[in-house]
Structure prediction request, 435 residues.
Amino acid sequence: MSKMSANKKSVLYGLTFFLILSFSILSFSGCSSAPEKPTIKIAIWGGTDEIDMIKKIVGSWQERHPEVSARIEHTPAGSYTNKLLIRIAGGTAPDVMFVEANIFVSFWAMGAFMDLKPFIDKDASFEIDDYFSEAVARYTRDGGVYCIPRDTAPFACVYYNKDLFDLAGVPYPGDDWDWADMLDKAKRLTKKSEYDNIGQYGYYGWTWQNFVYSNGGSFVDDVENPSSFTMESPEAIGGLRFYADLINKYKVSPSPVDFGNLGMGAQQLFMSGKLAMYQSGFWESTLFRNIKDFDWDVVMFPKGPGGIRRFGTGGSGYCILKSTRYPELAWDIVKLLSGREAQIALAEMGLTQPAVVDIAEGEHFALNKRRPLNKGMLNEAVNYVVYEPFHPKWREINDLYLTPRLDLVFNGTETVEEALSGISAEANLLLKEER
Prediction:
């Protein structure tokens, strides 16, 4: 019995020694391990080519900074905004975030972004004056700069099929044309099929706001500090009525029902030679460069009846989140992704108009020989852009009230006046809410 007890003690002492030794080894290993690398999380959306370009640029930066881990986090555009709002509210925000110029407002209003002006002021390698001032102004609030523009995007391109113009004997449009000239060309280029259906449309554009702006109308009293809804003005109503008439009266534009019957969208309609003029932004060029069956180019959106030239606009850039633990590293990434290399690559893809002025005016964009040849007109178009109202409730006004009612106008089931009736009261209540 005593021998058994001695054996038990021996085993117990041995086990205790083993545990102490193991703990000591683990503790020593933990103390000697290298500190974890700083990780910079970069939130983006975009197509395959754009993602590949970003990965390449960030990968080159990563090779020069092996002490840092740069992680690209891609989210599809359709769910991007909501997902990022949830992440920010939940305390899991990225360090750097890609943002669109009009969606920027929602994030800025919740205080998500870091002021970049201190970085701009002390960084001798960066010059904010190189960028289009209109784009910079969108992201400048109360003396701070909260985003560096990567591109600008006036809704000013009217793509036109040169072969259809030639076949109909219709002169090509020029940048100085107006609504009357556009309507005349659209009528001459709209053709019926043998079954009395329209087999070729003269014009289509999704940016109805251009017609409001170029007729002297507006959405609100002051884009920068909106306090009242102004779309019931005669100028705004007149612009919307002309746009609706292109669909329902003159029948030179396909209606939403027509698109359903045709089984294709506006891009496909243009690429198949069934749409003579298609109004959108420069980003369509990357797809349209695949067209082999006809020649095409772009022209600036036409002036309104009073000679007014105005367009809606988008654009995008990169911001740093306030919650980042590594602001200096995040600033390096923002400079990288909104800098020259990235802007040149995107311009040559046919995806974006650079926000850096000399790149936009040079060989990589305006002077580039790839179609559209007249894309340089977009550098002038920047002078006439109108951003969406800078108010966190504007997206709600647009999505819940304005768009659904205007769909009824474009479907031909309501007049402009009927559709806008009652929207003002709701819009004004939301605009007056504390910002």
User: Anything to note?
Assistant: The first strand starts at residue 39 and ends at 44. The chain has two domains: 39-153+314-386, 157-312+389-431. Residues 1-32 have pLDDT under 50 and may be disordered.
